[in-house]
Amino acid sequence: MSLTSAPDHPIELTDGAVAIGGRPVLRGIDLTVPHGQFVALLGANGSGKSTLVRALVGLRPLTRGELRLFGTPLASFDAWRRIGFVPQRSGAASGVPASVREVVSSGRLTRRRLLRPLSAADRSAVDEAIALVGLGDRARDGVGTLSGGQQQRVLIARALAGDPELFLLDEPTAGVDLHHQHVLADALGALKSRGTTVVLVAHELGPLAPLVDRTVVMRDGRISHDGPPVVVPDGEPHGPDCGHAHAVRRHDHVPHVASPLERDR
Ligand SMILES: Nc1ncnc2c1ncn2[C@@H]1O[C@H](COP(=O)(O)OP(=O)(O)OP(=O)(O)O)[C@@H](O)[C@H]1O
């Protein structure tokens, strides 16, 4: 907690806007995420989910609005070790031969003093992260020998090893088989029980659904729904929020529809 009474929410974005190449991509985004909340960011292709999470970690500059991370304006925020970010799948192999253990260990770099060997606490955090994503038997293997889905899990383990207080993941389940979606759900469930704040971009929640406290749905660069997830038995709308629940399902699966805010694919 900060010494003042100002809130220190992990994320507080007010009237956020992003333009790419002069074209508005996000507009009028108000998003406050309190400690310990598990937020799913949903929406059709091109609706702005990735741009929003990238803006939230300072990778996309805001053209308007204010972003505070843990109560500190982005411009003066420097506690990046409190934040873990797993980008959309790009592969953990960069051409440099490195083992799973080495890549995951790099997630501890901000936690230890430069050029110091890994401490026992570092090593156990690395082992725990590798086990959590189900790669214990591949720890010594080169990341280049792993499948795309396994490389994604290496990146997740690297972020987990840093023991972040705020963890953002962009489509971690894309192209991942059901068994490994359950592995990921277990890993994120363990984080959630530690009180970690999670923001997750997804098309399909699948096994992650029970973890979600709040769904934010993007549409054409704006937030079109923000509220608690609603359980919809047998695919039927249910309860007073059924319209929204149905909308979430439909957005989750809508085919790509061209709009002025969508990129060519
Ligand atoms: N690097 C870029 N260059 C140009 N336009 C971009 C770029 N990145 C995003 N955009 C634009 O921003 C819009 C939002 O893209 P974004 O990737 O944030 O959407 P998304 O909801 O994450 O989509 P998806 O589910 O397909 O990943 C796109 O329609 C695209 O036009």
UniProtKB/TrEMBL annotation:
InterPro entries: AAA+_ATPase, ABC_transporter-like_ATP-bd, ABC_transporter-like_CS, Metal_Ion_Import_ABC, P-loop_NTPase
SMART domains named among the record's database cross-references: AAA
Keywords for this protein: ATP-binding, Nucleotide-binding, Transport
Family note: Belongs to the ABC transporter superfamily.
UniProt xrefs under CDD domains: ABC_Metallic_Cations (cd03235)
Any GO molecular function: ATP binding
Full protein name: Metal ABC transporter ATP-binding protein
Source organism, top-level taxon: Bacteria
Residues covered by the ABC transporter domain: 11-245
